Amino acid sequence: MANTGMGGGYGPGGGPQSGPGSTEYWQAMADSAERETRRRRMLRIVAVAAGAVVLGGGALALALTMSDDGPTPRAQQSSSAPPPEPATVTPKLTLGPTAKLDTATGHEGQSLLLGGTPQGFAESETGAVDTGADFTVSALVRIDVDTTPKAAVSQNGTQFFSFFLGRDDASDKLRNRWVFKVQTDSEIAKSATAASQAEAVTGRWTLLTGVYSKKDGTISLYVDGVLAQTSEAPRVLASTGPLEFGRIRYSGLWVKPWNGAIADVRVWKKALTAEQVDAVRSAGKDAPSPFARFVAP
Questions:
Q1: Where are the transmembrane segments (predicted)?
Q2: Architecture of domain 93-294
Q3: pLDDT tens-digit map of 110-127
């Protein structure tokens, strides 16, 4: 009698059965199920990859995680925003009607641009120094005229300036010279000056640094980091500020308006040494940190 069971039977032609009860049938079904699983897995990968979009400061990136049946896709947040920069305290400036902050020829970064008029000035909200103690002030300046005295940075009282850094033209001896000048008393012609030996060059950026040492009773001017002159200064007229950019107070009037550009003004509450002044010029690692900085690069 022929075998009529569900497994291992033969068909009419004597060959193996291919119906639901055969081994071949179940093997074919298993192969089909495995193909379907692989197809669904690929569809999920394509769907996740197609859905990667930019969201705010980051982007959705495709990542793979391992599971029991192989790698599967997972969306992961990846931030492309740069890390925050260190906070830098920059005292604010109040600008005069014709003063402006902008780029200037020959200098990278922002500059204070002044046109040599009484309306071209700026003053700080903070940053004034105690002129009865040691202090240092530096500024990167460009002068665009070679006549009449001009003040880049100053600190003033009600009638007279305490100090100013800039260019003088007050006498034959100081004709077109860089100067660091201090008022020693609240009277006309009561001042001390440290000046450059060489003339100021118009249209060229120059680093001016003025140093007052109360202990030594001297003021010193450095031009591009090199000592130009040290002069006696028994005292500096007291004032409370604010710092002024582009003008000074003299005999109750605002005078000496700057014509050119001013940048990277720094103030220290101490008398810098020659080595420290040079480190500031070269941005060396030993450069002392100022307590106030304006129009910084």
A1: 45-66
A2: Sandwich (2.60)
A3: 999 999 999 999 999 988
